[in-house]
Amino acid sequence: MSVRAYVLVQTGVGQSAAVSEQIRRLEGVVVARDVTGPYDVVVEVEAATVDDLGRLVVAQVQTVPGITRTVTCPVVNL
After folding, report:
1. Is residue 46 within 8 Å of 28, Cβ to Cβ?
2. Residue 52 in 3-state DSSP?
3. What is residue 78's predicted lDDT score, i.e. its pLDDT?
4. Which of these, 6, 32, 46, 58, has the minimum number of CB atoms within 10 Å of its CB?
5. Cα–Cα–Cα angle for 21, 25, 30, nearest 5°?
6. For 19-60, how does the pLDDT look when each residue is reduced to its tens digit (9 = 90+)?
7. pLDDT given for residue 1 in this prediction
8. Can you tell me the distance from the alpha carbon of 76 to that of 71, in angstroms, rounded to the nearest whole number?
9. For residue 5, is pLDDT > 90?
10. Rounded Cα distance, 17 and 27, in Å
11. Contact 78, 42 (CB under 8 A)
12. Rounded Cα gap, residues 56 and 12, in angstroms
């Protein structure tokens, strides 16, 4: 069984398209979409374990240039 989460991403002004394009290239990213509202990009990620999920978000997603803040929302019912 895998673990999934939604990562809500805020970016610098005018950086959402570049950020979502970079995030889409990361292994474990199911989809990354530019959106409007309080967040600029919504990302669905999948990993084998909760630890792997944490590493994906912290070591890969959060290091993408242009990101100012993320909120991770684990899916509790698949």
Report:
1. yes
2. helix
3. 67
4. 58
5. 95
6. 999 999 999 999 999 999 999 999 999 999 999 999 999 999
7. 73
8. 16
9. yes
10. 18
11. no
12. 21
Q: CATH number, domain at 21?
A: 3.30.70.920
Work out how many domains the chain is built from and give that number.
1
* φ/ψ (deg, to 5) at 69: -165, 145
pTM above 0.70, yes or no: yes
User: Which range of residues forms the domain containing residue 16?
Assistant: 3-74
Lookup: tokens for 73: 């929302």
Residues 6+ apart with CB under 8 A from 32: 20, 23, 24, 41, 42, 43, 44
pLDDT of residue 49: 94
CB 57 within 8 A of CB 72: yes
CA 11, chain centre distance (Å): 12
Both tokens of 18, joined, read 């570049």
Would you report the helix, strand and coil content of the chain in percent, each value rounded to 5?
Answer: 30, 40, 30
